[in-house]
Amino acid sequence: MFPDNSPSDGSSELPISNQPSRQGDIVEIDITDVNDSGEGVGRAGDRVVFVPDTVTGDRVVARLVTVKRQYSHGKLLEVLTASPHRVRPSCIVADKCGGCQLQHIDYDYQLIAKENQVLQALKRIGKFTAPPVAPIVGAQGNFAYRNKVTYPLGVSDSGSVKAGYYRKGTHQIVNLNQCPVQDERLNPLLAEIKQDIQDRGWQIYQPESKGAREPGLRRTGVQIIVSQYQEEELTVTGIPKPKLRNRPTITKVTDIPDHRPKFRHLLMRIGRRTGEILLTLVVTDFDIPDIEGQAQRWMQRYPMLVGVCLNLNSQSTNNIFGTETRCIAGRDYVCETFGNLQFQLKGDTFFQIYTEQAETVLNMIIDRAKFTGEETLIDAYCGIGTFTLPLSKRVKKVIGLEVHAASVVQARSNARLNSINNIEFRTGAVEELLPEIDVQADVVLLDPPRTGCDQAVLDALTAMQPAQIIYISCKPATLARDLQILCEQGNYQLTHVQPADFFPQTSHVECVAFLTRGEAPA
């Protein structure tokens, strides 16, 4: 297969290396597995080779691009024999864009690979001999599912504004006018708002501009430093010119700061059940000419657009959001229904990306935890109360812990919106709050970031000894690490692990693990 994703006739004329050991060597290999990054895995001699855009059952030709002692990474050059699991991607830039890693794999096999990813992590990292992993819960729809998208903005070589995901392994933006995994109701806004920004002549933040210029600088003028005078005889097409005396020599050119407001990111969030859309633009300065007027025009053009916000980020940083957000039209949230409750979702706070799948996991937790209504539950890393609020209906008392202050404000607001009064939200890092908690929890729900739990959190759980721990994770490797610690040092038994596909077409997988204190149930 060449870049058009169609298999070749097997007549590759590339020079194949039988003992590959250097960058640039060409190898012919069979793909026997898919790793947790979505790369195909094969062997060339005694070397493991990881090749993106391949799948189990492919026979491929690849060029080694990085070479380590025991493994290499390769770039796909040709598919000699296509796997039965290979399909043509739905997106025309799937082989370039870094947003999806598995579009070339049929969905049934994506699920097999993700379930195996969870199983292998628990065996190899968690050291569980026979981990109780249930069959993965696949998505009913594996495209057009994302309820939120965030696109960096850039400028093409021709000067056009572009928005999209970064090209694989780079910071180069692959320009998109639509995306097959985002909710399809967002597609018209992506192309048209990008065009509006260009038509208005608004500036785009370019952190990697030519000449390695610092962010916020441009050559609107030069500062000339004259260090000497010289005589110079100028000629044009061989015609002698008079000597010019006292002509200054420019020995230093410095950039002048460009303080014009610039656009950095375009973010859209949609309520999957309500259809309401919120647009947030990340900018370096709020003072953008006629931005309020343009926001009103967007509101008139798109009936489901309920608000336009600006988020200020003027720092030279990889962080998407700054600390201040202003609503310049409509309101700063969308309404959504989740777990039979009403939620207000802002643009800069976390909510599970696949609404329907998150609700499926919520119902699994309710079914498996078998709450009696008398429990005290601690929801660590509670965010805006995505799981906290629905579970509060099943227990006596809930304490939510969250480091992001804006999320806590939103969680309290959502609790009031639903007339829920048995929840107490506390602001701070979980590793600081949990060891000092002044209540005995019967159940602790963990939903940490991809890095997993801090050791202080695991130590606090060991000391507290809640009857149940429910651990939601989006990274099997850190989940396995933390489960091993809880089972070894905390006298817990891993009773059930339920993978669920929250991220179709990508290599990511969500799962929820259930632990009980003491001996495993009979």
Can you give a write-up of this model?
The chain is α/β, with parallel strands linked by helices. Strands 6, 7, 8, 9, 12, 13, 14 and 15 form an 8-stranded mixed sheet that branches. It has a 7-stranded mixed sheet with strand order 20-19-18-21-22-24-23, with helices on both faces. Helix 1 runs parallel beside helix 9 and helix 8 packs parallel to helix 9. The N terminus is likely disordered.
What's the short version?
This protein has 9 helices and 24 strands. The protein has 522 residues and is of the alpha/beta class.
Salient structural properties:
single chain, 24 strands, disordered N terminus, 20% helix, 522 residues, seven-stranded mixed β-sheet
Q: Uncertain regions: pLDDT < 50 for 5+ in a row?
A: 1-11, 209-246, 248-253
What percent of residues are in strands? 25-35%
Q: What is the 3D form?
A: globular
**E-strand count:** 24
**What quaternary form is this?**
single chain
What's the Cα radius of gyration?
Answer: 28 Å
Measured as a percent range, the helix fraction is 10-25%
How is the main sheet built?
8 strands, mixed
**SS-based structural class?**
alpha/beta
Distance between the termini: 52 Å
Number of helical elements? 9
Helix-strand blueprint:
Elements: E1 26-34, E2 40-44, E3 47-51, E4 59-67, E5 71-81, H1 107-124, E6 148-155, E7 161-166, E8 173-175, H2 187-199, E9 203-204, E10 217-236, E11 239-257, E12 262-270, E13 277-283, H3 291-301, E14 305-312, E15 324-330, E16 334-338, E17 341-345, H4 355-369, E18 376-380, H5 388-392, E19 397-402, H6 405-417, E20 423-427, H7 430-433, E21 443-446, H8 455-464, E22 468-473, H9 476-489, E23 492-500, E24 510-517
Parallel strand pairs: 3-5, 9-12, 13-14, 18-19, 18-21, 19-20, 21-22
Antiparallel strand pairs: 1-2, 1-4, 2-3, 4-5, 6-7, 6-12, 7-8, 10-11, 12-13, 14-15, 16-17, 22-24, 23-24
Helix pairs in contact: 1-9, 8-9
